[in-house]
Amino acid sequence: MRFRRLPAILLGVVALLVVSATVLQGGKRPPSNTEVPMAATFVDNSGDRIMSDGLGTYTNGEYDVRAVIDASGNFALQTPTRILRLDFGAPASPDATAPFETGSEAGYMSTGCGGFQDMAVGESVRSRLAVNFTYGGQNWFIRFAPAEYPDTSNVLVTRTADDTWEIQAAATDIAKLVTMPIKGRPVTTEHGNFFLPFKVVVKKM
């Protein structure tokens, strides 16, 4: 008889733990570790230097695009069959050297602030941002990351609605361009700073 009652007891304990966790978090349920599918639309304003491929919204699951709020609470965009347009025509330091002035590459973009879903509507936070792509046998990294590169800027993330966020770099924000070889020793080389403004609106699907 005691073994038959054990599952019910365990269920009661689990329920108590869930209620306790909810109380500790101010009445909110604990955050989920499940990725949230998103749709990302680049505004492509005049003067922007990280832009879309002109084919519209990058929707999670379409054309192998991955656009999500990931388990760490960051936005991540991966475009293996679509591309991002990159314009390095605005150097921000004398040593700035890019693989091309303008080009289009499949890439990966991610924020580094976390907590997207914990932001209140109307709240803005500063965040690291990375854009990665491969070109000429090298891995290239665009870094808005002042904690790592003090002469760069963070980007601005704003939650504009319950299901919508804006991520943007202003015309005066600075990113560092870095390379690492695809093969061999993982040694990074800095290629100077660039102005790389952009704006992307990300929305839950």
Description of the structure:
There is one protein chain. This protein is mainly beta and 205 residues long. The protein folds into two domains: 1-30; 32-204. 11% of the residues lie in helices and 41% in strands. The protein contains one helix and 16 strands. The chain has one helix at residues 2-24; strands at 36-42, 50-51, 58-59, 66-69, 75-78, 84-87, 102-105, 107-111, 124-127, 129-135, 138-144, 155-161, 164-169, 174-181, 189-195, 198-204. Strands 1, 3, 4, 5, 8, 9, 10, 11, 12, 13, 14, 15 and 16 form a 13-stranded antiparallel beta sheet that branches. A hairpin with a 2-residue loop joins strand 10 (129-135) and strand 11 (138-144). It is globular.
* Number of continuous helical runs: 1
C-alpha end-to-end distance: 49 Å
Strand content: 35-45%
How many domain units? Answer: 2
Radius of gyration: 21 Å
- How does the helix and strand content classify structurally? mainly beta
Major sheet, described briefly?
A: 13 strands, antiparallel
Number of strands: 16
Low-confidence stretches: 1-32
What is the general shape?
Answer: globular
Percent of residues in helices = 10-25%
H/E element sequence: HEEEEEEEEEEEEEEEE
Mean pLDDT: 87
